[in-house]
Amino acid sequence: MYRDPETAGGPGAPSRDVLLVSAIITISLSVTIILCGICQWCQRKLGKRYKNSLETVGTPDSGRGRSEKKAIKLPAGGKAVNTTPVPGQTPHDESDRRTEPRSSVSDLVNSLTSEMLMLSPGSEDDETHEGCSQENLGRIQFSVGYNFQESTLTVKIMKAQELPAKDFSGTSDPFVKIYLLPDKKHKLETKVKRKNLNPHWNETFLFEGFPYEKVVQRVLYLQVLDYDRFSRNDPIGEVSIPLNKVDLTQMQTFWKELKPCSDGSGSRGELLLSLCYNPSANSIIVNIIKARNLKAMDIGGTSDPYVKVWLMYKDKRVEKKKTVTMKRNLNPVFNESFIFDIPTEKLRETTIIITVMDKDKLSRNDVIGKIYLSWKSGPGEVKHWKDMIARPRQPVAQWHQLKA
Q: How is 181-195 classified by DSSP, letter by letter?
């Protein structure tokens, strides 16, 4: 006997199609649960594996300078007649990482690999400094005293701490210049401490033949610089202290925070750029967006800016790209992107150097300012690098102050 399929099961009985759909849904849910369990297991295993294989990074320099004395004799007028010019440890920790959802186990592995290998230094509360314009320049310790019998002012430069990195290698070569303002012609200098962000000098300087009534009219000015053999020394920070506010009857020791140097180095302008890291393609996209308030380098009170982008690996230049030149413009808009191939395992020792130049037809092009981007640069640069890694495949834009 033939029965109609719609009524074969009797009233209320499920049809064949309904049973088939129910079976498919049940099987799909089972497979999903199994895959989720496998993914979670893989994530735990991979996390433990990479966590155990991390290497501790840091090259502390514990060398201390020997105590030395350098002196200049001053006549009754209080002017120096002779000078003796003499030509780091990076904190790091593991920061929280934000990861985006992955569509497969292979993407999860790629994400874990890139993020575990790319641990960035800096404190956990780096984000609290977002939008803060003043950069931490470190601090310096020094002593000052006056010998009334010998009419000699003594200045001892002891040490500095937490200096910012000025070189693309992630460190600095600091030294100190000592002035008694308003006299800028005569100065004394400490030795250069190579690759050291926490240098110890322990050097003593004597200003001999300096009457006390002249001393109290002077301002002790200390300038910390990063020594560069092939170009201009980069200013790191400065400290000034009027000597009429110091008890000079005995040696007084001070810790002073370094302030930005007032030599015009901080007025070179700013550059807006974005970074986009793609771990699956092993590449970084650098987008030079625009600049503002660039320093005028030409006689006419303007500049012809363009931007050079260098990819550095282990202090070696790998690849260079540059934008077009914008004629007579101190607020140029570039909007040019450059792609650099960077394998994940090389990111730790990679630095991107961005230089804003002034184009000259009849002479050498002038440097307006530079930016060093890596996991071991200055605080603002490190923050940008960390944000780029934390948000893969997303352009991360940030303004940077150009430096000398």
A: ETEEEEEEE----TT
Residue 132: pLDDT band with limits 50, 70, 90: very low
Distance CA 388, CA 382 (A): 10
Quote the CA–CA distance of 356 and 367 in Å, as a whole number: 6
Query: What angle is formed at CA 70 by the lines to CA 66 and CA 74, rounded to 5 degrees?
Result: 165
Output phi, psi for 168, to 5 deg. -70, -10
CB atoms within 10 A of CB 76: 10
Distance, CA of 157 to CA of 193 (rounded, Å): 13
Alpha helix positions (H), 76-143: 105-117
Give CA–CA dist 89/74, Å, rounded: 39
> What is the tens place of the pLDDT at every residue in 281-291?
999 999 999 99
| Of 183, 210, 173, the residue nearest 86 (C-alpha) | 173
User: What Rg do the C-alpha atoms of the chain give, in angstroms?
Assistant: 31
Report the C-alpha gap between 261 and 249 in whole angstroms. Answer: 30
Residues with Cβ within 8 Å of 24's Cβ and at least 6 positions away in sequence, in order, are: none
Q: What's the pTM value of the predicted model, to 2 decimals?
A: 0.42
Sheet holding 234-242, edge to edge: 183-189, 174-181, 219-226, 234-242
Domains in the chain, please, with CATH? 138-264 (2.60.40.150), 269-402 (2.60.40.150)
Give the residue from 165, 115, 113 showing the smallest Cα distance to 386: 115
Q: Tell me how far apart the alpha carbons of residues 389 and 291 are, in angstroms, rounded to a whole number.
A: 24
Give the span between the Cα atoms of 144 and 37, in whole angstroms. 68
Q: Do residues 277 and 388 lie in contact, with contact meaning Cβ atoms separated by under 8 Å?
A: yes
Tokens of 190: 């400490």
Q: Provide the token pair at 116.
A: 């575990």
pLDDT, tens only, 316-350: 888 999 999 999 999 999 999 999 998 888 888 89
| CA 216/CA 232 separation, integer angstroms | 33
Measured CA to CA, the distance from residue 205 to residue 144 in angstroms comes to: 10
Q: Tell me which amino acid residue 291 is.
A: A
Side chain identity, residue 229:
R
Exposure of 349 in the CB half-sphere (CA atoms within 13 A)? 10
